[in-house]
Design goal:
- This protein is an alpha+beta fold.
- The protein is about 35% helix and about 25% strand.
- The chain has eight helices and 13 strands.
- It has helices at about 15-20, 25-30, 85-90, 120-125, 130-150, 160-170, 185-195, 200-210, and strands at about 5, 10, 30-35, 40-45, 50-55, 60-65, 70-75, 80-85, 105, 110-115, 180-185, 215, 220-225.
- A four-stranded antiparallel sheet has the order 3-10-5-8. A four-stranded antiparallel sheet has the order 4-9-6-7, with helices on one face.
- It is elongated.
- It starts with a strand and ends in a 15-residue tail after the last strand.
- Residues about 1-10 have low confidence and may be disordered.
Length: about 240
């Protein structure tokens, strides 16, 4: 299965591959859908079912707890992105072994998540090259996004992080995408998304509104102009 647009050929996404796979009733009956309401929290320490999860639609945030006990939102997950990949490398937990919580996934909007048991994942990896390619690509993109956040996001002042969020979007500019320059998240979620307190975000917004760089309307933000001064951009939007 290949998707052709003009002269370019793009590989199908993981979710597109899975939609085809689920036409097989022998696989479909082993796979489950979960609908998550906003605020639903999943923790990695609960993945003792040994499953891989793929976002069918909606938006979820990946968050960790820092050394001071504060929650840090690292990035948002959208359609075809995955989590629970630690199950691919770790064997089943031994009886009585303490659960380790590495990160949490929280639904930001109403979302649907596909749960794939590991034996089904192993079967698809062995039998379907297109699934192997899509899975590998998804894992690589996930690692790249987290690394990009670590290197270019958390070290920047709040104003810079907010500007880069507006320019790059939730998961960074991808080839062929045009940044919207808008923040569609409510302000309290946006603060968590860029890793700052609500107070810091409020002060940054006020400063940038006064400078004519932002327009604030109905609790949403709109980037005015190109925002070239006086803030630096991250590597993704430079």
């Amino acid at each position: 299965m290949e998707i052709t647009t003009g002269e370019s050929i793009a590989s199908p996404t993981l979710m597109e591959v899975l939609q085809e796979v689920l036409q097989d009733a022998r696989i479909a009956h082993r796979v489950s859908w979960e609908r998550w309401a906003p605020g639903t929290l999943w923790q990695s320490c609960h993945n003792r079912r040994q499953s891989l999860f793929v976002v069918r639609h909606g938006r979820l945030e990946l968050a960790v707890t820092d050394a001071e006990g504060r929650e840090r939102s690292l990035r948002l997950l959208a359609e075809s992105e995955l989590f629970g990949t630690e199950a691919l490398a770790a064997g089943p937990a031994a009886e009585g072994e303490a659960a380790r919580q590495d990160y949490g996934i929280r639904a930001v909007t109403y979302s649907e998540v596909l749960q794939l048991p590991l034996d089904i994942v192993d079967q698809l990896i062995a039998q379907l090259p297109l699934f192997r390619k899509a899975l590998t690509s998804s894992i690589a993109n996930h690692i790249w996004a987290l690394e990009r956040e670590r290197e270019h996001g958390r070290s920047m002042p709040t104003n810079n992080r907010l500007l880069c969020y507006l320019r790059c979007g939730e998961n960074g500019i991808r080839s062929g995408q045009k940044p919207s320059g808008k923040a569609t998240l409510p302000m309290h979620l946006l603060a968590r998304r860029i890793g700052c307190s609500a107070g810091h975000l409020s002060r940054s917004v006020s400063t940038m509104v006064r400078q004519g760089m932002l327009l604030r309307q109905d609790g949403r933000l709109q980037l005015q102009g190109d925002g070239e001064r006086p803030y630096a951009f991250c590597e993704g939007c430079a």
